[in-house]
Amino acid sequence: METKRLTIGGQAVIEGVMMKSPRWVSTSVRKTSGEIVSKVEAYQSLSSRSRLLRLPIVRGAVNLFEQLFLGIKSLTYSAEVVSSDDETVRDTSNWKFSLSAGLTVVVAFALGLLLFFYLPLVIANHVGAKGSIVFNLVDGLVRLGFFFAYLGMLSLWKEMRRVFEYHGAEHKSIHAYEHGETLDLESVKKYTTRHARCGTSFLLVVMVVSIVVFIFMGRPESVGERLLRLCA
């Protein structure tokens, strides 16, 4: 009887990758010495603990914040490992770190909404775009412009370009796993760096689809209507 393969997701971190299954999270980081340090932690989604958190829309919002939290936590851990010259790495499982990571997620999420959703609305309004279709096209194109400019600026940063390379390696590894290959260099390197479940690609799809959806929602005239659009 064939064993059912787990759904595996992941994220690139500084000099490494984080991989997540439904019950475990593992982060592996390469130190400056070349040694690879790994940390494995048990994981239980909040939506699996409460029927209320499994409701449609609520579940999506909960999962989004969970993934952001895990991402910040793994990035911080990788930075600690890379910058540490000895075996002492700050504990990332205590409540103080969890609180700090949680606040970071909230701030990052708020800044993301401001930059990629609210500011394009303001710009579209100030350039004098008339009518629902034109206004929402300008809003969407500005949003896409910000998104590509953001990725372009990150790629100019040497350290972040390295993270992008690990992002591609993560996709290759998941492809190999999903095709039943052994997870070694020869098996992994033949696969593409693109993956259908990539979170960055999904964000781009959401931005493009939102242009069409928002056209049918009309033009937000007040601050309150703009804030409601952010919730949408």
What do these coordinates show?
With 232 residues, this protein is an alpha+beta fold. The chain folds into 2 domains: 1-93, no CATH class; 107-232, no CATH class. It has helices spanning 58-83, 95-126, 132-156, 158-178, 185-188, 199-215, 223-231, and strands at 9-13, 16-20, 24-30, 36-42. The chain has a 4-stranded antiparallel β-sheet with strand order 1-2-3-4. A hairpin with a 5-residue loop joins strand 3 (24-30) and strand 4. The longest helix is centred in the middle third of the chain and has 32 residues, at 95-126. The chain is globular, with a radius of gyration of 20 Å. The N and C termini lie far apart (45 Å). The mean pLDDT is 83.
Short description:
This protein is α+β, with helices and mostly antiparallel strands and 232 residues long.
